[in-house]
Design goal:
alpha/beta, UDP-N-acetylmuramoyl-L-alanine:D-glutamate ligase, six-stranded parallel β-sheet, four-stranded mixed β-sheet, 22% strand
Length: 316
């Protein structure tokens, strides 16, 4: 079984269903409330585990009830949480999420302990990185910590995947450390300086990224390397909530690459995982099992091999 190391955030998601997103200054009634695990790091760790990888997670939680529950939930998914640090006197990260009946959402983050994630926390995952094929990062923890993590992962021989969300200016020295950067369309525009996804992706390649995979929501995904550009269409599903879709997509991409799949197969696998995550409410509660993703792929016209590829993704 392949191994993925995830370095990132751990949040408690507080979710309210609404008929529409409120206007600025407006108070409105919700139509239901739920609470569950979230944070891009934790979501992607859970998704990778459900998609068939052994997973180690590095990050920080507070010494509060939310932190205890979230840590227990991660362990119950089979995730190695040895590198997760409990920070005394600090609250666990929280996300306030409003979700419409069409599945669109608005999110407010309070980072809490996530903001304390440091290079020392990355060091706690160093042994796991030496055993892993892929290391997966996001930007809900300090950028300096992500930099340390990327360097450590490259030293350990991992393929590095960066989900640059939430979008933020990154130092130039980040990009040569990133084998696969996987923004959504908005993040690609912010980081690549163009509203046209292909042009934005090419700009990120110029900065030094090895490969760019842009998720396009209902339009599927676009992949751009130095040699080629291709797209994968979205899988049609009935959308309930898009909250966990991006995390499922990036986890699927990471797991498939860890398994040695071609880039096309990896994007396809991620796209199917992201589509399935749209069919249920919540972040971690919506993340699909590997069997469901393979069933979706087998029932579509997509060409996806269930056998390990003979060659893995080679970049740079």
């Amino acid at each position: 079984m392949v191994k993925v190391v995830v370095v990132g955030s751990v949040n408690m998601d507080l979710i309210v269903r609404v008929s529409r997103l409120p206007r600025l200054g407006e108070t409105m009634s919700g139509e239901g409330f739920s609470m569950g695990g979230g944070g891009k790091g934790a979501n992607q760790a859970v998704a990778c585990a459900r998609l068939g990888a052994r997973v180690a997670m590095a990050g920080c939680i507070g010494d509060d009830d939310f932190g205890k529950r979230l840590l227990s939930d991660l362990v119950s998914e089979g995730i190695d949480c040895t590198p997760v640090r409990v920070c005394p006197g600090v609250n666990t990260g929280v996300a306030l999420i409003a979700v419409t009946k069409e599945g669109e959402n608005a999110i407010i983050l309070s980072p809490g302990a996530n903001a304390l994630t440091s290079g020392e926390d990355v060091e706690r995952a160093a042994v796991a990185m030496k055993e892993a094929q892929v290391a997966l990062f996001q930007l809900e923890i300090p950028t300096a910590t992500v930099m340390v993590g990327l360097k450590k992962a490259k030293e350990a021989g991992c393929l590095t995947v960066l989900d640059p969300a939430p979008a933020a200016p990154l130092p130039d020295e980040v990009w040569p450390l990133v084998d696969v950067v996987a923004p959504n369309e908005i993040e690609a525009a912010d980081l690549g300086g163009s509203d046209e996804p292909t042009q934005a992706a090419l700009r990120l390649l110029e900065k030094g990224a090895g490969c760019v995979v842009v998720s396009l929501g209902g339009e599927g995904a676009l992949a751009v390397t130095r040699d080629r550009t291709f797209s994968v269409p979205a899988f049609p599903v009935e959308v309930v909530d898009t909250t966990g879709a991006g995390d499922a997509f990036r986890a699927g991409l990471a797991v498939a690459l860890a398994e040695g799949k071609t880039l096309e197969e990896a994007v396809m696998f991620g796209t199917a995982a992201g589509a399935l995550a749209c069919t249920a409410l919540g972040a971690q509660s919506s993340l699909p099992q590997r069997s469901a993703v393979l069933q979706m792929l087998s029932s579509s016209s997509a060409r996806y091999s269930t056998e390990k590829s003979q060659t893995s993704l080679k970049l740079k």
